[in-house]
């Protein structure tokens, strides 16, 4: 799996793979819908998915499109709240699902893997958010640079 090997050691990736379930989505197929209960997170192995929300006027708005290597649904893993948005496949996609139950098993069976994976997931998501928000630099370069610098200072002092 591409994502695991990019942020975990080979041994940790092999252990993590034992807890994941492969999911195939066809173009236009929903992974989950806004309001559904959260049952874990997904690693995108290949393909493209979009996060969309239903607006009060009945329209939908695409918030973001993700591709290979991205993580979606992670807030449900930690918050156990209903899905705040829907996720739909833009192209045929292949994902790996880490269910809440599998994550609980990892916490019991592989506590070090839980710590490393949680930290790495957080760092990957933070990097993704920073990249997604770089457009803000054109609007307010000084504020954005200061925000990015302070986040970098915080995360650079953390290590696993």
TrEMBL record:
Regions that span the bilayer: 129-152
Keyword Nucleotide-binding attributed: no
SUPFAM superfamilies noted in UniProt: cAMP-binding domain-like
GO cellular component labels: cAMP-dependent protein kinase complex; cytosol
InterPro entries, sorted: cAMP-dep_PK_reg_su-like, cNMP-bd_dom, cNMP-bd_dom_sf, RmlC-like_jellyroll
Key words of the record: Membrane, Transmembrane, Transmembrane helix
One matching Pfam family: cNMP_binding
Chain ranges of the Cyclic nucleotide-binding domain: 8-106
The keyword Plastid appears for this protein: no
PROSITE patterns found in the cross-reference section: CNMP_BINDING_3 (PS50042)
Annotated signal sequence range: none
Cited PANTHER family: CAMP-DEPENDENT PROTEIN KINASE REGULATORY CHAIN (PTHR11635), CAMP-DEPENDENT PROTEIN KINASE TYPE I REGULATORY SUBUNIT-RELATED (PTHR11635:SF152)
Name by which UniProt lists this protein: Cyclic nucleotide-binding protein
Organism for this UniProt entry: Microseira wollei NIES-4236
Organism taxonomic ancestry: Bacteria, Bacillati, Cyanobacteriota, Cyanophyceae, Oscillatoriophycideae
């Amino acid at each position: 799996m591409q994502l695991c090997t990019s942020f975990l050691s080979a041994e940790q990736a092999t252990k993590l793979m034992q807890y994941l379930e492969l999911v195939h989505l066809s173009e236009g197929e929903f992974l989950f819908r806004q309001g559904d209960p959260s049952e874990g997170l997904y690693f995108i192995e290949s393909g493209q998915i979009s996060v969309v929300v239903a607006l009060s006027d009945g329209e939908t708005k695409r918030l973001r499109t993700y591709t290979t290597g991205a993580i979606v649904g992670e807030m449900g893993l930690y918050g156990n709240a209903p899905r705040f948005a829907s996720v739909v496949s833009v192209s045929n996609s292949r994902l790996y699902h880490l269910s809440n139950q599998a994550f609980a098993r990892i916490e019991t069976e592989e506590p070090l893997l839980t710590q490393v994976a949680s930290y790495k997931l957080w760092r990957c998501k933070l990097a993704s958010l920073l990249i997604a928000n770089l457009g803000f630099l054109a609007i307010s370069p000084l504020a954005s640079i200061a925000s990015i610098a302070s986040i970098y200072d915080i995360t650079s002092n953390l290590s696993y």
